[in-house]
């Protein structure tokens, strides 16, 4: 599995925690920053990362900002992206099983490093259940392709 990882200035510490988890899971990771001292704009990271998932270069992306909201709004503008904003273990699991989410967004100002690490571990390790959920996810793609 190949995962692209990014954050704005509000998510740098959590991004480093998540990078460690991905390394432990032996996931291939490209970390595109930010390497920021000052503030940057989350769409400048979310959109390129999401595009590289949508074009098949990466299987998934993990995007972190202060709240995770800016990253998720931006990533979901990219056709083919199903970005989930997750701050608990239940939805980390279920968004993979039911929504086949291909982008995980978290907020560093919302949760601590321990929970973020477990969310990343759960999300990366959980498979899509397909079945009835396939039909629902397909309806999103049909709308995008209208
Ligand atoms: C940056 O201050 C902050 O707005 C950003 O990290 C994020 O929380 C936006 O959704």
Automatic annotation (TrEMBL):
Gene Ontology terms: biological process: carbohydrate metabolic process
Residues that coordinate or bind D-ribulose 5-phosphate: 8-9, 66-70, 99, 109, 132, 136
Pfam families reported for this sequence: LacAB_rpiB (PF02502)
One MF term in the entry's GO annotations: intramolecular oxidoreductase activity, interconverting aldoses and ketoses
UniProt-annotated catalytic positions: 65 (proton acceptor), 98 (proton donor)
Keyword field: Isomerase
Family per record: Belongs to the LacAB/RpiB family.
NCBIfam families recorded: PRK05571.1, rpiB, rpiB_lacA_lacB
Protein name: Sugar phosphate isomerase YwlF
Gene name of the encoded protein: ywlF_2
